[in-house]
Amino acid sequence: MPLPYQPSLLRLLHGATALLVLPAWLTGLVVYARHDGRFGRLHLVPDGPWIDIHGTVGVLLWPMALLFGVYAISAGRARLRQGSNAVALLALALAVVSGKLMQEHWLRAGQLHHVVYNLHLTAWLLLSVAVLWHVAAVLRRGGQALAGSMVQLRVQANDRPRHWLGQLQRGLRRAVR
Questions:
Q1: What gap in Å lies between CA 61 and CA 53, rounded to an integer?
Q2: What CA dihedral angle connects 96, 101, 106 and 112, to 10 degrees?
Q3: CA 103 → CA 10, 33, 51, 85, 98, distances in Å?
Q4: How far is Cα 51 from Cα 105, in angstroms, rounded to an integer?
Q5: What integer pLDDT is reported at residue 166 of this predicted model?
Q6: 139, 150 in Cβ contact below 8 A?
Q7: Looking at residue 1, what is its pLDDT?
Q8: How far is Cα 64 from Cα 72, in angstroms, rounded to an integer?
């Protein structure tokens, strides 16, 4: 049975976002475990510039999440009807926006009371659950074939980079109607 086809722009933005979310999530876990300490401190990871690393990944994730969001509300709008897709995208947006509003010195100074920091932690947990839900929903809807279609390299003739702007414009026109 042939794999379902996913648009190349979706695959590119989804894949790049996923490749940035994973290190953001992991470095966030390390930062939380080393600097927050409300539920005990984790010292399995050596000291290092983890806050800076996490922030750098966040800076790289911000424009990718923005592009992915634009794609989702235009050409990918129909996919947002799936709750797992919508919640994952909203959790990503909350994590990125709250991360941009944080000050990196807060954790170094032990200032854990800031609303934005707690919102960022909530977004981190929500993103964790949302990604698990998203993967489970993909596997339930289309199994390995649907999951595999997100990593295939085949590109149809009408789905090359020169067609991407037109795809977004058509999606935005449909979204406005």
A1: 12
A2: -70
A3: 32, 18, 10, 29, 10
A4: 9
A5: 86
A6: no
A7: 59
A8: 12
pLDDT of res. 168: 84
Provide the token pair at 93.
């947006």
Return the pLDDT at 126.
95
For residue 98, report the phi and psi dihedrals to the nearest 5 degrees.
-65, -35
- Token pair of 102 as six digits: 């944080």
**Mean pLDDT split into 10-residue runs, the chain, 177 residues:** 82 94 93 80 79 95 94 86 91 96 90 94 94 91 84 86 86 75
Please report, for the chain, the start and end positions of each structural domain, with discontinuous segments joined by +: 8-176
Integer Cα distance of 61 and 59 in angstroms:
5
The 8-class DSSP code of residue 156 comes to: -
- Buried residues in 131-169 as b, exposed as e (16+ CB within 10 A): bebbeebbeeeeeeebeebbeeeeeeeebeeebbeebbe
Q: Please tell me the predicted confidence (pLDDT) of residue 40.
A: 65
- Record the pTM: 0.85
